[in-house]
Amino acid sequence: MRHGSPPNRPLALIAGRGGRLVLTAIDRPAAAAGLTPGMSLADARTLCPELETAPADPAGDAAALRALARWAERYTPWAAPDGVDGLLLDLTGCAHLFGGEAALLADLLRRCRAAGLAARGALAGSAGAAWALARCGETDTVLPAGQERDALAPLPVAGLRLDPATTGALERLGLRSIGDLYPLPRASLAARFGAAIGRRLDQALGRQDEPIAPQRPAAPYRTRLAFAEPIGRREDIAAVLDRLLAELCALLERDGQGARRLTLAGFRVDHTMVEAAIGTARPARAPAALARLFAERLDRIDPGFGIETLVLTAEAVEPLAPTQVALPEGGRGQPSPATLADLIDRLGNRLGFHHVTRPLAVASHVPEQAFRQAPALALEADSGWDSLPALPPRPSRLLARPEALEVLAPGREAGWPPACFRWRRRVWHMGRARGPERILPEWWHGAGACDGNENRAAARDYWQVEESEGERFWLFRADPAGRWYLHGLFS
Amino acid sequence: MPDGSPLAALRAALAVAPAAGGRRPSGWATGLPALDAALPEGRLAAGAVHGLAGRAAYGFLVRLLGRRARRVLWVRPVGAADAVYPHGLKACGLDPAGLLLVTARTDAERLAAAEEGLRSGAVDAVVAEVGGRALTLTASRRLQLAAQAGGGFGFLLPGEEAARLPALSLASLWQIDPRPAPWTVAARWRVDLARCRNGRTGTWEVDWDAQTDRLAMAAPAGDRPVAARIAAE
User: Fold this and answer.
1) Which of A97, A103, A491, B182 has the highest CB neighbour count under 10 A?
2) Among positive and negative, which fits the CA dihedral A279, A284, A285, A291?
3) Cβ atoms of B123 and B117 closer than 8 Å
4) Nearest to B188 by CA among A464, A430, A469
């Protein structure tokens, strides 16, 4: 697509390849000037000094193609990107909705071209034939079933979706058109060029099935609403969303399912689309709760010139047993798990679900490994805290990594914590101390696991220390050599 | 202040006012008569936000929550140098299974998360480690309203001395500092109730007995130069 520049200047996209700049894509005027993709930029400039260039953006192109494929789902759910620059649509059973195959193709190409895409398209009984016609034959062709053999015969072998090396080899042998391959014995073709050529030929001629993998599995839980007049106000979108949610939740309820991920897609009048997605910590199908989760996302839906269709899809569902209609909640004594799940959902959607966690107990002697933060998906599941053996006093805060102390005065006896130390740029004087509690790492951890000395070196002697003002620390000495670390705070 | 005075009657009338809209929230008694007497109705008000400052604020709060709160939402900064240590909380009587930890990058996000938690009423208490410039009178007022709606307790840990905090809408503001104590005492604090709506301020020196989960007045010990400054009760 071209923006703002005079329409007749040749344009090419360039990318660095092997230390030089080559053309990756060209437009029609550039092709007319004799340029081809793959040519180096220096050569191209010699041929066509007025060439205009822009850097290629493969990731952006791929994303745009995916978006286009999703837009093409307006014609059929079986739409998939094909290569880096094509779309493959299986229109079986869809064409009558648009007034026939020819009308559908014309509408599709008209809309693409109106959006500024230089689109070519063809419709045929097999994916291979349509591919060949769209790329090498006449565009806008609708090929009646059974005529693939004749229609493809004059097209170049490049239309067979073979790799460039095979295509080049065929052309060197004088096999320039697809029709040239018909009389040749399959066995010798396969022996010379590999099995792909026979398969591609069969696919193009409709003798071999070729399923299209759609961009994503069609979700059975989907509701849509199209509007006679495009809508743009947030309140309108929210009102439509409520209707869609009510419908979708009824579908889910019928099947005993709950949604884990929902996507609201808005198709705008200028053929672009916007999306908002939410996730839930547990399967849910309460329209009000889901609407609340969407509420913050609706701000991000930019209606542009107006939205003409809204589609709500439950991308992921999980079984959810039918619930008894609950009595109104009584006192505050026992908060219901449903409201807690609501809270987790709202916080998770706003901050990211990995930021909403709960601690799980881990069976380890090493203090910092004795717990881990797990996503708070199911708060009522057993987290392992009840079955723990009693431990000596543990601090309520643990430093993420033990911080080394600068010892200013040694301890009262050998092995005792320092009488005076510096931590976080402050000098602390020790008042009381009690310990040590020796904590050994698990023998199966660490490099020197089999060696007794190594093991002892990794042992830690933990002390509770009260500094002169009353703050209580958890110190340890990492090894007999005596480096002291602060690992936790009791106060 | 003898009971039955006009001032006491006025206080009683004011104390009812915040809860007039919804159900009457209950509160937590600390169990120490001298301390409870300073609090409105002898309890730490529920459906309200309390601020805890000082070096021992964290430990005091954990022990206050222990055995009282079943579900706690704890809002923390991302990548803090220290972690809430569940084994330590368990030792204080707070079941880690009921702990929901939320980390958020900015103070504004933390305030919003805390507000969401307070408003939902799904947790007994919300602890928010929020400080700095985002903690304004307006922000604290929003939290206070959310706590009233949800009926739970909100606790702010601003990480700052109480005296240096700006004017905030808090039901109470505490300055908790550690005091040296023998190992038989789980924790000894100098508890300074700096502000208390519908209550009185005061300073106490209290011990926490981990076994019985009770507060007691700290016994004057020989190794301390000055006996505790205890508010006249």
Assistant:
1) A491
2) negative
3) yes
4) A469
Beta bridge partner(s), residue A225: A310
**Contact assessment for residue B92 and residue B62, using Cβ atoms and an 8 Å cutoff:** yes
Task: Please tell me the total number of residues recorded for chain A in this structure.
Answer: 491
φ/ψ of residue A43, rounded to 5: -60, -40
Compute CA A489 distance to the chain's CA centroid, rounded to the nearest angstrom: 41
Contact B71 A388 (CB under 8 A): no
The DSSP code for A43 is H
- CA gap A60, A15 in Å, rounded: 14
Q: State the 10-residue block means of pLDDT for chain A, 491 residues long.
A: 57 85 86 85 87 87 87 84 86 84 90 87 88 86 85 87 86 87 86 85 84 66 89 90 92 86 89 86 84 85 88 86 54 58 86 87 84 73 74 88 89 86 91 86 58 54 90 85 86 81
**Looking at CA atoms only, how far is residue A488 from chain B in angstroms?**
8
Chain B from 67 to 86: CB within 8 A of any A CB: 71, 73, 78, 80-86
Q: Are A125 and A111 in contact (CB under 8 A)?
A: no
| Overall size of chain B counted in residues | 233
**Structure token digits, residue A438:** 């020796």
HSE-CB for A200 with a 13 A CA cutoff:
21
Q: Cα–Cα distance between B140 and B131 in angstroms, integer?
A: 11
Q: Has residue B178 got a pLDDT over 90?
A: yes
Strand order in A52-55's β-sheet? A20-26, A11-17, A52-55
CB atoms within 10 A of CB A205: 17
The 10 Å Cβ neighbour count of residue B13 is 9
Contacts of A491 in chain B (CB under 8 A): 55-56, 58-59, 178, 187
CA-based nearest residue in chain B for residue A471 = B178
CB-count burial class (<10 Å; 0-12, 13-18, 19+) for A33: middle
Helix (H, G, I), strand (E, B) or coil at B56: coil
Q: What is the rounded CA–CA span in Å between residue A259 and residue A222?
A: 11
- The residue with tokens 């609090």 is B39
Quick one: closest CA in A to B56, which residue?
A491
pLDDT tens digits, B31-51: 888 888 898 888 899 999 999
Q: Which residues contact B64 (CB under 8 A, 6 or more apart)?
A: B28, B30, B44
Cα–chain center distance at A280: 17
Q: How confident is the model at residue B232 (pLDDT cuts 50, 70, 90)?
A: very low
d(CA A433, CA A284): 53
pLDDT score at B19: 44
The structure's pTM equals 0.63
Task: Name the token pair of B116.
Answer: 């969401």
The pairing of beta strand A11-17 with beta strand A52-55: parallel
DSSP state of A273: E
Contacts of A468 in chain B (CB under 8 A): 180
A53-62: Cβ within 8 A, 24+ apart: A53/A11, A53/A12, A53/A13, A53/A14, A54/A11, A54/A12, A54/A13, A54/A14, A55/A13, A55/A14, A55/A15, A56/A13, A56/A14, A56/A15, A56/A24, A56/A25, A58/A15, A58/A84, A61/A85
Q: State the Cα–Cα distance between residues A244 and A313, nearest whole angstrom.
A: 9
- 3-state SS of chain B: helix, strand, coil percent to 5? 30, 25, 40
What secondary structure letter does DSSP report for A298?
Answer: G
- pLDDT of A336 reads 56
The reported pLDDT for the residue numbered B12 is 67
